[in-house]
Fold this protein.
Amino acid sequence: MSIFSSDLLDFGILDLLAQKDTVIHRINAMAKLLTTLIFIILVTSYNRYAILPLMPYFVFPVVLLVLADLPPRLILQKVLLAAPFTLFVGILNPFFDTTPMLQLGTIYITGGFVSFLSIFLRMLLCVTATLLLIATTPFHEICHSLRRLGIPKPFVAQLMLLHRYLFIIAQETSRLLQARDLRSFEGRGKELLYYIPMVGQLLLRSLNRAQRLHAAMLSRGSTGEIHILNPAPMGHTDIAFLIGWSSVFFIFRTDIPTHLLQKIGALFLR
Amino acid sequence: MSHHIVEVKNLYYRYTDGTTALNGVSFRITHGESVAIVGANGAGKSTMLMHLNGYLTPQTGEVRIGDMPLTRQTISHIRRTVGMVFQDPDDQLFMPTVEEDVAFGPLNLGLPLEDVNTRVDQALKQVEALHLKKRLSHRLSGGEKRRVAIASVLAMEPDILVLDEPGTGLDPHGRRLLIELLASFRHTKILATHDLDMAMDLCERTIVLHNGQIAADGPTQKILRDDELLQKSHLERPLRLQGCPICNRGNT
């Protein structure tokens, strides 16, 4: 099977997970979206050497993972897909910032290494939180919530259509690759050169489809407005989820957990 | 009930690359009629259909739906009257869930929410797909997609249904169910298809397009037996009229 169809399968799995029915899945999309946003804002708000203060935040993804009954392996695999990007962002830090920060025995740990680790932890936290949001909430509900939060119409429409047609373009790509594979022998025909017309072909097909789609929208009286049908109301549980987690995150943001951690550390060291 | 009439007068359409797709087409379809538009690939069927609900506007000639000519001003009214079912249901089901997709048209008409919900249920019931209501559009089978696509048009309560190759991608059983479903509709129906057997089942009248012109317009039974006409238009007799291939060889 080609890479594309197996990727499609994986993407589909995330989509299927969102259809489950657990405590977390039942919570209103808006509540989950806002909680995740606050989580990300706070996690990214620390200075660049923060490592210890980030630790408590791992509670959130872990609790969600357990309550939503999601396969941890699968989520971790997806998170690691984003890892190379942080690697690119932070890989040079240890070379540029060589001020010693910590001393473990005879080894000095430089500021660059600490900030690199901090970037990695933040990536881990933010990407996991976002993936958990997607794996516990139907994608269109996230889009509706974004719209209600005032994100401009064109962006939300793009996102919705992207999600809807991602499957179709993946299918089309895998058909294209299959057609090529069946007519290439001993590696001939699989050279990079042949990807150029294939990408062009995909672009043309997408343009054609977009045109037909536009026709279909117009023929049903579209004016570009995204109407939200029967938006789910926020219940007590949803508000409790939002306020509860946000308070926890704000407590994490204060000095209290670091003090506690240091006290506990001191107890052990004594 | 003059408002269910579709009238095309002397319609010409030329694409920007110079291809003439329609070269003087005229016909009149009256209330409750069921008409098949058949023709070879590139005969102008799709261009013709695109004119019926105003995706294309006539370059020369006229399209009238009911008492109204198709112009920029009347377009939204005409789109409400003429429901268009596209060839590829994936083009038509662009909303994330079945329910939202069927509601798309009625919401654009500005109907109150209760009415929209009733229409969605009604339309889905009509195509026997009410159980699919909460499903995601991209997780339906080909036959289910086709049904939902039809429901999304029915929800706008059009007087005239235009269908472009409705049988595409369906297995024989699905195709049979679709024919029964379409036969049960009381709308004026216009059906562009290569499936001449389907045309025989559903349409009493057939219009043959060839090179952008009308090659014939008359009763389906007569037209689909006219071998000379069919051959000239790159078509052939429906299988059902071809006689038994084993005992009747050469007799047809």
The mean pLDDT of chain A is 85. The two ends of chain A are 58 Å apart (CA to CA). The longest helix of chain A spans residues 153-181. The longest strand of chain A covers residues 100-104.
